[in-house]
Amino acid sequence: MDRLTSMRVFRAVVDEGAFARAARRLRLSNAAVSKHVAALEDALNTRLLHRTTRSLGLTPEGSAYYARATALLDEIDALERELREGGETPRGTLRVTAPMSFGLAWLAPALPTFLSAHPDVKVDLALTDRFVDVVEEGVDVAIRVARALPDSSLIARRLADAPRVLVAAPAYLTARGAPRVPSDLSTHACLRYTRLHDAAAWTFTSPDGAQETVRVDGPLDVDSSLALRGALLAGLGLTLTPRFVVADALADGGLVPCLEPWTAEPASVYGVYPARQHLSAKLRAFLDFAQEALAER
Fold this sequence. Notes:
Elements: H1 3-16, H2 19-26, H3 30-44, E1 49-51, E2 56-58, H4 60-84, E3 92-98, H5 100-117, E4 121-127, E5 141-146, E6 155-162, E7 164-168, H6 170-176, E8 192-193, E9 201-205, E10 211-215, E11 221-222, H7 225-233, E12 238-242, H8 243-252, E13 256-257, E14 263-264, E15 267-273, H9 281-295
Helix pairs in contact: 1-2, 1-3, 1-4, 2-3
């Protein structure tokens, strides 16, 4: 039997919760639906469904297969739909994930402009500081902010620089004094954002081009940019962070820059997507929009 058809039948069975309802939805006989699921299980040498006379449920293997098969079928359907409809008009749902602070500071405010320009696109946005597996989780594009990305099979498009700044609350600097050179940080309460690869070693460049790296430590290691920001505003310590995380607090005086005129190497903003994925019109439009909009900031 055709494997793709069997996958669609299996998906319908799971979605409907019964072979008979799936058969009615697909306009197939009950026997044909059963044969497709059986053929799929035989080909995989794995039981996908628990069947009784009263209930139907997924095995662990079936649950994993259903998630991946659903994402694959949706991608095939989207590709075919785009090709039928001309292919160059952005349309459909675009699944995007981004770090919490970047999403709140830039992405969410910018989305109305993007969606107004592309009314046939719907954005499914997930803001999280955890590392998202774009392939496993069926994400179209992940926004990542980093100095460098690890080697992978994913495609990374660089969208913009993300300048970084050393900041602290005025109350902290009043109590502890302001660092004047990078080596002073060894005696300060340095708050570390653990999702950066250089969380424990910060590198700065002087106006004459000399570089200095200092090992830092402090009372808080945290994997949430929002929690880090809150601790900074409360005067717990200082940190090195992309400017967009604290731009509003710098503007209103809640935080102040430190160590000037020394500068930190900027991070970059990347759009990361699966190499095997057809670059749809909606994804291309989003990446182009993000790059142009970030260049204007």
